[in-house]
């Protein structure tokens, strides 16, 4: 029998094309890896965004606390002439004279 191009034995005809199946598996595996990488990238982005929001909240809290501390320092260290209104310890009629 001549085994020319395109000639396949009965055993080969009953089996699926192995190289095509393997290449399909390779393609699917690569697509799966890309999908997992993309999903991991999305998860990383979400985690970064969440951490940034937490950091922003923490920084805004710190800024608020610092601003409160600074305002307390300013009011305690400022001379009395800075404030136009009466001081808590002096009576109202003192400013009207």
TrEMBL record:
<feature type="region of interest" description="Disordered">
    <location>
        <begin position="78"/>
        <end position="97"/>
    </location>
</feature>
<protein>
    <recommendedName>
        <fullName>IBB domain-containing protein</fullName>
    </recommendedName>
</protein>
